[in-house]
Design a protein that fits this description.
alpha+beta; 2 domains; four-stranded antiparallel beta sheet; about 30% helix
């Protein structure tokens, strides 16, 4: 003879276990979804994105900048961008062509010295040169962990550099050290301004370096 009470107890127990498993499954899925952003941030970086707001300044001797990557020895691994006047100058009238940093030695002098611009050909400089933006806006540059020849660099520590000639001899440099083995996230930057009271500091602002 069937024990009804025992059957009902078993049935209720199975229902309770089923509901418990559903709650556990839902809670587990919710936890996984919530952790996805953190998991993404925990991934090893594959590139570095450098960006800043640019606002064109009035007057000569301004609006020149360079973005590059150095190794631990302070050697340039890759120039991501340098403004055209710096490398090509500007010819007016019967003037002879002359590189901008020669005509105006205050033009991003740190980049010029570090990259050894005098040892580079016009073709090599052309490969990293771009026009100075005529209007303000966000400027973005990406380093894919390759050198100037397009070869993957060795794993290790590197330094990102952003230099801007604000006006005449007034110069500002942003720099930050990171490793190619770091996980995705922001790179801490420090800045050094040669003329603290310079009125053209709005030329580049909100400088960021992000490993992605």
């Amino acid at each position: 003879m069937l024990d009804v009470s025992k059957y009902e107890k078993t049935k209720l127990l199975l229902i309770h276990k089923t509901k418990t498993m559903k709650k556990y499954f839902i809670a587990m899925m919710a936890a996984m979804l919530l952790s996805m952003p953190a998991m993404a941030q925990g991934k090893k970086a594959k590139s570095l994105e450098v960006s800043f707001n640019y606002q064109k300044q009035p007057g000569p001797g301004s609006n020149q900048y360079a973005v590059w990557i150095e190794n631990e020895k302070g050697e340039v691994v890759k120039t991501l961008f340098v403004t055209s006047f710096t490398t090509k100058g500007r010819v007016r009238g019967n003037e002879q062509p002359m590189r901008g940093y020669v005509k105006r030695p205050n033009c991003v002098p740190t980049w010029v010295k570090t990259v050894k611009a005098n040892d580079l050909s016009d073709q090599q400089l052309d490969a990293v040169t771009g026009a100075t933006p005529q209007a303000g806006g966000r400027q973005t540059f990406t380093w894919d962990f390759t050198d100037q020849q397009g070869k993957k660099v060795k794993q290790g520590k590197y330094r990102v550099m952003v230099e801007a000639t604000l006006y005449q001899a007034s110069d500002i440099i942003y720099s930050g050290t990171f490793s190619t083995q770091d996980k995705a996230g922001n790179v801490t930057l420090t800045s050094k301004l040669t003329e603290p009271k310079e009125s053209h500091q709005d030329m580049i602002t909100d400088v960021k370096a992000v490993l992605k």
